[in-house]
Automatic annotation (TrEMBL):
An example Gene Ontology molecular-function term: glutamine synthetase activity
Catalytic activity: L-glutamate + NH4(+) + ATP = L-glutamine + ADP + phosphate + H(+)
Protein name in UniProt: Glutamine synthetase
Protein family (similarity comment): Belongs to the glutamine synthetase family.
Organism field: Dactylosporangium siamense
SUPFAM superfamilies: Glutamine synthetase, N-terminal domain, Glutamine synthetase/guanido kinase
Single GO cellular component term: cytoplasm
Any one Pfam family match given in the protein's UniProt record, by short name: Gln-synt_N
Tree of life domain: Bacteria
Annotated EC: 6.3.1.2
Biological role: Catalyzes the ATP-dependent biosynthesis of glutamine from glutamate and ammonia.
One of the protein's GO biological processes: glutamine biosynthetic process
Amino acid sequence: MAFKAEYIWIDGTRPTAKLRSKTKIVADGAELPLWSFDGSSTNQAPGDKSDCVLKAVFTCPDPIRGRDDVLVLCEVLTNDMAPHPTNTRAACAEIAAMYAGQEAIFGIEQEYTFFKDGRPYGFPPIGFPAPQGGYYCGVGADEVHGREIVEKHMDLCLAAGLHLSGINAEVMPGQWEFQIGPVGAPRVADELWIARWLLYRIAEDFGVAATLDPKPVKGDWNGAGAHTNFSTNAMRDNYDAIITACEALGKRVSEHIAGYGAEIEHRLTGMHETAPWNAYSYSVSDRGASVRIPWQVKVDGKGYIEDRRPNANCDPYVTTRLIIETCCGALAD
Ligand code: ADP
Ligand code: MN
Ligand code: MN
Ligand code: MN
Ligand code: MN
């Protein structure tokens, strides 16, 4: 007998990468082999040297196909077995291993927007729905669109064994969020990429597209982010470490903004619960700050911080690598 392995990888589309996947039939008991693909069709290689290599790095049950079938997240290698230039996971894993003693963990809030017929799901065919106000965490067919897909996606993530910690309807109609974590890097990013793949895949069955566009509707409509909650063992122990991390993030603003997702300046305008992308701030309980210290963390004198800047379309390998570099680097000094 044999099982189906869905090999999933991050392609070379830029500025925002996309997911690709293909199915391999693997004999029962066999290891998941290296597998090649046509990099000239994914912006990862020229046509005359088109073969790129997929190496399995994270495997979980395939909750859609069931049985013994699996989802296999892969790193992309060149054909001399080095990390491909589009492979951001290798550097993330390296820095995480370097600071493993600090036990960094992340909870990422992935916001996204459903689209149908070129319009956000729930928008009327022409014009706009009622202004924002009642949609966030709403209930009822007048305000909530796509819950059948969201419920299904949540069940699939749990059946796959991902650390999904919750879902909610967001501020704009058709906009939703799920959270992955808290768990270490690069695993939190592996799981987030798998959860994104499951979202695209299950929405397909409903004739709906899910998008990570950070500003899907211009004007007075909320953008989509990927708030990244973060702590180390020291931050979970004392408030000084919380402040050290917040201050350190203020010293490398441009590096972080450059790695937090394409078109971030369209979303981080200073409106719609954001801080301006070029003016760093941190503050307790403030959803208008770049970095929020949750109120409970201030009360307890320990816990975690929320970097509110990453875009929905960020690469979580890059986001978590930057935060570890900056914060664990400062905490190690
Ligand atoms: P918000 O109020 O910003 O919407 P959410 O409930 O959506 O918050 O997300 C909070 C996230 O913080 C969750 O993903 C959770 O896993 C994460 N989290 C909680 N505690 C920690 C911690 N100590 N370190 C890192 N992340 C944490
Ligand atoms: Mn072919
Ligand atoms: Mn949230
Ligand atoms: Mn949110
Ligand atoms: Mn948040």
